[in-house]
Structure formats: structure tokens, C-alpha cells
């Protein structure tokens, strides 16, 4: 069966300047604690935040049942077009720097899933630009939380953040520097409104 | 004048040799995409010695071009990536290579959007009798995005990776069937096509180029419509 999850990303050092990252609980090439769950899977990382949106295409019911017993795994319902009703969602998502204060009683899981995808894409671009300009493995949330304001980040972090904004076609001059990251990351995710996400060849 | 001789310079394999001075200059190809390389050599050589059109992407790890079968690969326990430096690629680009040999624990495949300043690229690690992977590398950090272990690949299969906007797609012999699934990913927006190799697998007939835009396709420029909405 096919399931969407949020799962932790585990990190394995592969050399003095290299590392490998893959999904906790699943089998992957550098899996440090095999055997993980063997199935056809894909994941969309949240940049260098060690959490990812995860699609298991053919996970068994038994593996799924065991997986969701882990407190650091979130499972999306099969019917994504129902309203979000999970009372644990705020604590779980915000714990991995995914703001949820924008949710309304009418928000569906599909809208939540797509918003998560958009926010992940933004932090990916941030990490890519940071690495290209300064090297290293960086996330928006290296030294910040969702409550941090953009003008409280370091000048270098701010520069990369605004470069990421610009790379998606926004005008960085319109970004209010005193806005909190929870607002800005959510707004960045809005870029994907009307656009298709693909994970493992599956559109959502 | 023969194509392989210009004045005192003689083309010998992948180098120009000056018959008077003994100077040797590696051949640099470029200027017309798709770029191709059949890895034809008279002796086993490091890839960057064989051709100055290649640059090593990941640390000191090297590829070897093997004379016996005119293929490229890494040695046992050696992992490497290299980019084609002789041409500039559009942001929407592809790389492909034909699988020549390999077994369990060995991979080779094409890469795209390889950076000139960091060990950064999207990689399709393919091979024979192994699971195949779509890997994203950011400054030496490999993130496994997708895998496929259901389909066995064979010698002669052409594996390809395409980066089209934020969509990264792997193909085998022109089809996505049996490949790691396509992904939306925004980390890397530009770079060069190249190759990835791991632990002895070998490939041949590499090609890198730009993806063709469908006729009539225009680039969306309406980005000014987007504003950060802070009211919600």
C-alpha cells in the first residue's frame, strides 16, 4: 500500500568532508542500523533539517503498523482530502520547524501536505545556495527557530535567505525583515500554489 | 592536410603531440552540445589525464579510462564524480551513460547540475545486479532521494538523468519504468553534466546536453504576482 509519512533523516559520516543521509527506519544504502523496512520509497528532504516527507509505495500493513508506533513518525491519512483533525499536529510539525499556525478548520491534509512540500523546497534552496557561496551543510534553522525574526539572523544567513527568496522569483525588497521565520517560510511555501509536486513519480 | 596533423602537431589518441618539441597537450572538446565521450584510449589513464574536458568533482577520487574495452570507471573501493567542463549547459540538462560492466556493490551513472565550486550535483547511481538510486549531493553531503530495487539492469542499458526546472527524472533506455521515481527538488539550479562511479562499475558512451524546450513553450515571468502574504 502507498503511504505518506514524515520521518526523521539519519546521517552517517562517510569521510572527513562527506556524509550520507537517508530515512530512519527504512533500508537505504548507508543504513547504519539494518535491516530497515524494505520497500520502494522516495523522500523529499527539508534541506538540512533532519526530517523529510516520505512516500512508501508498497509498504506492508505489518511494517506500517510497526513504523507508526515510533513517536518521531507522522503518518498522513489515506484520504488526503479530509479536514485536518489531528490534535497532535501542532506539536509534531512545529517540532521539526514546520509552522502550523496557518491551519484552519477547513484545511485538508492535501493542502497541509502541499504546504509542507513548499516549505521543504525553500529550505532546500537555502541549503543549496549556502553551500555554493560558503560551503557546508546549513539550514535556515541552524541558529533560529520559527519565532526568530529575519533581522535576528546573522548577516550571512539573511543574505542567503533573501537570495533563496529571489531565486524563486520574489522581490527580496518586499520581504519584511522583522517578520518571523514561521511567517516567511509559510509564505515561501505559497510559491507552489497551483504547481505540481512529484515524489517518487507520484504527483500531489 | 590530414585531420590528425596540423604543422608540427599530431593528434595521438586524446592528446596533441608536437613532433619538434615533444610537447603534449590534452584534447579539449567543446562548443557543440550534446557533448559525448566514447572513452577511447591506447592505455589505461586517469580520466583527467585522458582528457582535459573532465574535472574531478569529489575530492581526490579518480576515474580510470580503460584501454582494453575503452570504458570509464572507478577502481575497487574508489568512489568518484566528474563533470564535463568543456561546454556550458542550460539549467535544464541531461546526462547519460551506457552500462558496460558491474556487479553487486558497484554503481556508475550520469550526473547533472554539477557545481564548479563544491561537490554538488544530482546523481543517478545505476548498476547491474544492484538497487539504483537518485542521490542529491550538496557539498559532499549525499541525500538519498529515491531508489528502485525491482528491476535488474543489464550491460548495454543506457541510464540517464534529467533536470528540468525543479523536476529530477531518471530513465533507463528512455523510460522511467524501473528507475528511482522522479522528484521535485529545489536544491541545485544550475551546473554541468558528468558521471558518478563507485567501486569498480564501468560505463561507456557518455553524453551530456541541454533538454529541448517544447515548441511554443515560454518561460513563466509572472513572478511579480507573488508576494509574501503575511496576513494569514
Give a written overview of the molecule.
The complex is a heterodimer of chains A (204) and B (232). Chain A is of the alpha+beta class and 204 residues long. Chain A has two domains: 1-75, no CATH class; 107-197, no CATH class. In chain A, 30% of the residues lie in helices and 19% in strands. In chain A, the strands form two sheets. In chain A, strands 1, 2, 3, 4 and 5 form a five-stranded antiparallel sheet that branches. Chain A has a two-stranded antiparallel sheet with strand order 6-7. In chain A, helix 3 (109-134) packs across helix 4 (155-167) and helix 3 (109-134) packs across helix 5. The longest helix of chain A has 26 residues, at 109-134. The longest helix of chain B has 4 residues, at 47-50. Chain B is built from one helix and 20 strands. Chain B has one domain (31-207): Sandwich (Jelly Rolls), CATH 2.60.120.560. Chain B has 232 residues and is mostly beta strands. In chain B, 48% of the residues are buried. Chain B has one helix spanning 47-50, and strands at residues 5-6, 9-12, 15-18, 24-26, 35-37, 45-46, 54-56, 64-66, 71-73, 79-84, 93-101, 107-114, 121-125, 132-138, 141-148, 158-164, 167-172, 183-184, 192-198, 202-210. In chain B, strands 5, 6, 8, 9, 11, 16, 17, 18 and 20 form a nine-stranded antiparallel sheet that branches. Chain B has a seven-stranded antiparallel sheet with strand order 7-10-19-12-13-14-15, with no helix packed on it. Chain B has a four-stranded antiparallel sheet with strand order 1-2-3-4, with no helix packed on it. In chain B, a hairpin with a 6-residue loop joins strand 12 and strand 13. At the A-B interface, strand 1, strand 2, strand 3, helix 3 and helix 5 of A face strand 14, strand 15 and strand 18 of B. Strand 2 (18-23) of chain A pairs parallel with strand 15 (141-148) of chain B.
